[in-house]
Amino acid sequence: MDDSATLRSLLEAAALKEVVQVGDEDIGSPSCKKVSNHIIGSDGALDTTRDTVASSDDEEDDDEGGNNGVDVGGVEDERKDSFDAGNICQECGKAGDDLKTCASCQSAKYCSRECQLKAWASHKEECKKRSAELHEEALFKQPPPRPDCPICFLPLPIDVTQCQYQICCSKFLCTGCIQAHWMVQDELDCPFCREVATPNNKSYIKRLEKRAAVNDADAIQFLGGLYDEGKKGLKRDHVKAAQLYLKAGKLGSALGYRNLAAAYHDGRGVMMSAAKEKYYHELAAIGGYMDSRHVLGEIEWNTRNFQRASKHYAIGAEAGHSGCLNDLKDCVKIGAFDRNEYARVLRAYKKSVEESRSDLRENSPLKQMMSMLG
C-alpha cells in the first residue's frame, strides 16, 4: 500500500473514531451509560432533573504525540468557550452545555450523578454556605404581589376571612364579590364559573380530590386542612394533613408551608420542632404569606434579634399587615428601626390597604358561611 493510501486510511479511521465518541449515545457505546436523572441537594435530598448521558471514565488522548493529523482546533475553541461560560464539570473538568446545576447552591455544575457524589465531600461546606446565603437573600426580598380577585380585580385581602377558595374552579374570590353575586341569585353557585354547590360531603370531596389529582397546589392544601380538622366527612388524620401541606408547599402554596409550620409548632402529625416551624414559616413568607412574616418577626423579637425582627415587620407592614405595622412601632421605640424609614413604610401600608379596600368585603356577613361554599 502506498503512502497516500496509508495516510487516507489513518485519516478515515481517526474520523470514524471521533464520530463514535461524539455519537456514542445513539450507537450504544460500552464506554457510556445512562445515569440517574437526579441532582443531590445540600441535605442529601434528590431533586428530579432531566436525563443526562456521561462517559464512565475520562476520555484519553488518541496518542501522546498529537491528534493523528485530525484538526481539533474547533473542539479546543468550544472547550475554551465552555470554560469561559462556567460550563465545566466541577469534578472531572468535562466541558458541555448540558451540565446539571446543584439544586441547593445553584452554582456547582456536574456532568453526571457519579461526579456529583465524588465531589460532595469537598463541596458540602461550600454548598451549605451558599445555600444559606441564597435563602437569606430570598427571605428579605420584597414578596410577590397579592393576586387579584378575578371578579372585582382588587388585590385579595390579607385577612383570610375575607376571601374563599372555590374548589370548582380553583379560584380565590373575595367575600364582597360572593355576597354581591348571591344577592341576585336564587341558588348557591360559584360567582366565577357558575358551578352549582355540591349537594353533599361525598360529592364535595370527590370534586376536591379531582383537582388535587392534577397537582393543584391550592386544592391539595385545602384537602390537607379538611383532614387536619376532620371536616366534610373525612376522618381526622394529622399525618396525612402534614404530608399534603408539604406537597402543596412544594407546588407553590405559601399557605401550605404556613400550615405545616403550625403542625410543627403543635406536634400535629409531625414531631414538634421549633427549628422546622421557623423554616417553613420562612418558606411561607418568601411565598408572600404575611401572617408567617409576622410570626417570624415575633420569633426574632423574642430572641432579641431586633434588627431582623424589624426587617420582617417592615416587609409585612408595606404589604398591608396591621400586626406587623403595630410591632414595627416597638422597633422604632427601642431604636432598632429608623423613624424616617418608618414614615415611608407607613405610607406604603396605607396605600396597600386602600388598594384592596372594599365596603362589601369589610361588611360581608359571609365570614361565618364559608363552609357552605363548594
Sum up the structure in keywords:
374 residues; globular; disordered C terminus; disordered N terminus
Report on the structure:
With 374 residues, the protein is mainly alpha-helical. The chain has 15 helices and eight strands. It has helices at residues 3-22, 24-27, 73-84, 113-139, 175-182, 201-212, 217-229, 238-250, 254-266, 274-286, 290-302, 306-318, 322-333, 339-355, 359-362; strands spanning 32-34, 38-40, 46-48, 53-55, 100-101, 109-110, 163-166, 171-174. The strands form four sheets. The protein has a two-stranded antiparallel sheet with strand order 1-4. It has a two-stranded antiparallel ribbon with strand order 2-3. A two-stranded antiparallel ribbon has the order 5-6. A hairpin with a 4-residue loop joins strand 7 (163-166) and strand 8. It is globular and about 70 Å long. The model is unreliable at 1-85 and 370-374 (pLDDT under 50).
